[in-house]
Amino acid sequence: MSKSGLDFSVGDHVVYPAHGVGLVQGIETQEVAGLKLEVYVITFDHEKMTLRVPTGKAKSAGLRPLAETNVVSQALNTLKGRARVKRTMWSRRAQEYEAKINSGDLISIAEVVRDLHRAENQPEQSYSERQLYESALDRMAREVAAIERIDREEAIGILAKSLVRTAA
């Protein structure tokens, strides 16, 4: 068990707030400024990126295991809810949505997907709304895919089913 209270093994899927689902490829000891530092080596295939997170700082960095089943259920239920769009300026809402996506919290990400989702009969989204929606949907789908051991497209199908609202 590491000093952080988090203990990940090689092959574990983890969630890093700013990048989503990654895979622990290894645990290395590196020397930085004369100090030995144990780090998790995490790869994010979809971003073609490798991140090294000190094991002692993993928790404060927001690194977490994949969401539990009950959290996934809550997130899917969140998608079924009514969109809650504040009447503030778009730039402020966009910042709030971005913060929710980068929080790494599955339920917060689900709120962004729900709030920015457009049904076929609704007006077009602006480019920036669509970008945030796609980013949140992708982040959520990747975590659901890793949890359910399915591919991203199947996960998007699951999310889409939750997003279909009954005619009001």
User: What kind of sheet is the major sheet?
Assistant: 5 strands, antiparallel
pLDDT averaged residue by residue: 90
Note poorly predicted spans. Answer: none
Which homologous superfamily in CATH is the superfamily of the largest domain? CarD-like, C-terminal domain
The CATH topology of the largest domain comes to: Methane Monooxygenase Hydroxylase, Chain G, domain 1
- DSSP strand tally: 5
Shape: elongated
The CATH architecture of the largest domain can be given as Up-down Bundle
Q: Please identify the structural class as seen in this structure.
A: alpha+beta
Give the strand content. 15-25%
Integer tally of domains: 2
Order of helices and strands: EEEEEHHHHH
Radius of gyration: 18 Å
Query: In DSSP terms, counting alpha (H) and pi (I) runs of 4 or more, how many helices?
Result: 5
What quaternary form is this?
single chain
What separation lies between the terminal Cα atoms? 51 Å
User: How helix-rich are the residues, as a percent range?
Assistant: 40-55%
